[in-house]
Design goal:
Elements: E1 2-11, E2 14-24, H1 40-47, E3 55-60, E4 63-64, H2 70-77, H3 95-106, H4 111-114
Antiparallel strand pairs: 1-2, 1-3, 3-4
């Protein structure tokens, strides 16, 4: 479960997230849609605490990630897969190998299971 409670983020003079609240249940499909600059990427960065909200709280599985230690945050981040828009892939690897990399590093899955 992912829950945003009254999350606000101001960047410069722009309020990018303005007191937003939503909840995504496990297994639910949730889509964030908007124009360029509407806050989609900022919202996603908050989900893994690459950005900290100016106000409000964010919960992953009922755990408030806005106050977690680095060690606890690392444990929560392992639940996510993130692929950024630009320059995110390791250029010397295939797309398949890029996708498989975290599975090889953080699970006991065999190559047959991964591929």
């Amino acid at each position: 479960m992912i829950r945003f409670e009254n999350v606000t983020k101001v960047l410069g003079r722009n309020t990018v997230l303005d007191n937003i609240s939503f909840e995504i249940e496990e297994g639910e499909t949730f889509v964030i849609v908007g124009l360029s600059g509407a806050g989609k990427s900022v919202t996603l960065k908050h989900m893994i605490r690459l950005m900290q909200p100016d106000s409000g709280n964010i919960y992953i599985d009922d755990e408030n990630i806005t106050v977690l230690s680095r060690k606890a945050l690392r444990r929560v981040r392992e639940k996510f897969g993130v692929l950024f828009q630009g320059a995110a892939l390791l250029q010397w690897m295939t797309v398949s190998d890029n996708v498989a990399l975290p599975l090889r590093e953080h699970t006991a899955l065999s190559d047959e299971e991964i591929l």
